[in-house]
Design goal:
Elements: E1 2-10, H1 15-25, E2 29-36, E3 47-51, H2 55-69, E4 74-78, H3 83-93, E5 97-102, H4 113-126, E6 132-135, H5 138-147, E7 155-156, H6 168-178, E8 187-191, H7 201-211, E9 215-220, H8 225-238, E10 243-246, H9 251-259, E11 263-266, H10 273-276, H11 282-287, E12 293-295, H12 299-308, E13 311-313, H13 317-326, H14 328-339, H15 344-363
Helix pairs in contact: 1-15, 2-3, 6-9, 7-8, 7-13
Length: 364
């Protein structure tokens, strides 16, 4: 089966996208189109990079690539911005099937601006037309049945993913670059939300004031300029010397930073569906490196921490960090036991088999 996977995200930075490509490869011969970040090169011959000139140009670019590729059997749509180019590709390529992954969950009330509301309309129109729909967790799958008037509950594909070094040479290079950063012993907490103030970053900063110099918060990620200014002003106002702001990292650097820190922080607000019922793969990125987590109390995160005992879901971040640090070896042992039972490859294989089964049912 010839498959075209379409994504308006960056393969270099997007863990879920990388795993979906692996799932698609279990189903057939895959060509995949993704956005290119600065200096990024195709991972292989079947990887087509779009040099970013905006979303409208992306749609045209996909259509041009489909004309070159010829007939495809299946179009694999990654997220809502893949919908319009995906269904155009289906028509142009004469594809029989569409598989749609819905990693986000916004309704019209919570969608940001006109583009966000257009995205909601596109999902409402097209999601029910997909042959297979995938949700990012069980909470979202149940909500989507009613939201999109689906005939069956979407497949549940949790964001189980592990960071990997691209090569041993790259690991050594990153270690040489970054070793000195960790020279001073501290209890380091990593947040990959950057300075995003909607991700309760302000509460994290308040917690760092209480925790003191023996702890350090690393804010890693791409940030809006306004948010970064707010964070820097808060750091200055609180007199913090234990917070570092770092740019978005590729998986080699991110893996090294998590490996050499002590805990992960995974937090979201609860003012809309997408965040309240968050589906964070970041938890697994931390756990696979042996690090316990502090999370906000969103239902999926709270239930996860309570069920598997691998972290603290709390609205009091200072207390939660102190609980982890106070019995750190015990928490590390719990994480080790948990990850020994979780397998990325099995998760991908299960989804591939479920997709194959639903496609076979379509033929009958």
């Amino acid at each position: 089966m010839k498959i075209l996977l379409i994504s308006y995200d960056y393969c270099k930075y997007d863990g879920r996208l990388r795993e979906l490509i692996k799932v698609a490869k279990k189903l057939g011969e895959v060509t995949y189109i993704t956005r290119a970040s600065d200096g990024e090169q195709p991972l292989e011959k079947s990887h087509i990079l779009y040099q970013d000139r905006g979303y409208s140009s992306f749609i045209l670019f996909v259509c041009m690539q489909v004309q070159k590729l010829g007939r495809q059997d299946l179009i694999f749509i990654d997220n809502r911005k893949g919908i319009l180019p995906g269904y155009l590709a289906k028509k142009l390529a004469g594809a029989d099937y569409v598989v749609q992954d819905c990693r986000e969950l916004y309704d019209m009330k919570s969608a940001a601006g006109i583009p966000g509301k257009i995205g909601c309309v596109m999902e409402r129109i097209f999601t029910k037309r997909a042959d297979v729909v995938i949700a990012a967790n069980a909470y979202r799958a149940r909500i989507m049945v009613k939201m999109f008037n689906l005939k069956k509950e979407p497949l549940n594909y949790e964001n189980i993913r592990r960071l990997e070094y691209t090569s041993e040479e790259k690991r050594r290079q990153v270690e040489a670059e970054c070793r000195e950063f960790f020279a001073e012993p501290k209890f380091r907490i990593v947040s990959t939300a950057g300075c995003d103030m909607t991700r309760t970053t302000g509460k994290m900063l308040e917690a760092m004031k209480g925790l003191g110099s023996g702890y350090e918060l690393l804010l890693i990620g791409e940030s809006e300029e306004e948010d970064e200014l707010i964070v820097r002003e808060t750091i200055r106002r609180l007199g913090l010397t234990n917070v570092k702001i770092l740019p978005r990292m590729d998986q080699d650097h991110l893996k090294y930073f998590i490996q050499n820190s002590q805990a992960g922080m995974v937090t979201y607000h609860q003012r809309d569906l997408n965040n309240r019922y968050c589906a964070s793969g970041k938890i697994f990125e931390f756990l696979f490196e042996g690090k316990p987590v502090v999370t906000s109390t969103n239902p999926p995160l709270k239930d996860f921490c309570e069920k598997y005992k691998v972290g603290q879901a709390s609205d009091d971040y200072e207390q939660a960090v102190r609980i982890l640090a106070g019995q750190y070896d015990r928490w590390r042992n719990r994480v080790e036991r948990f990850v020994s039972r979780v397998h990325v490859k099995q998760n991908n294989q299960k989804l591939a088999e479920q997709i194959r089964k639903q496609l076979e049912e379509q033929k009958r």
